[in-house]
Amino acid sequence: LQLVESGGGLVQPGGSLRLSCAASRFTFDDYTIGWFRQAPGKEREGLSYISWRGGMAHYADSVKGRFTMSRDNAKNMVALQMMSLNPEDTAVYYCAAALVPNAGLRPDEYTYWGQGTQVTVSS
Fold this sequence. Notes:
Elements: E1 2-6, E2 9-11, E3 17-24, E4 32-38, E5 45-51, E6 58-59, E7 67-72, E8 77-82, E9 91-98, E10 112-113, E11 117-121
């Protein structure tokens, strides 16, 4: 089982980025997929999650209204569209899979992790 993130990079304040997460060697059907980030010196923070069998995406207050999580069942991929980025959004962003539905935003509920992709918001 492998999760691979892509789409990170350098963006100016106020800009947008779209992150993708692709899964191999398993299907998402029975899992929760979440997006997390970790800035230097800070704890890993849960941003959003979605249960693969249905339902809406859920978001942390820190990103609600700016970030949108979506999924593509046919491609076994999820995406995180990020808008109105600010320097406080600078972090390594991870996607992760939990073995239960509606796992929430706690990182310790998630079993499988991607390698992360760096997002830097700076002018």
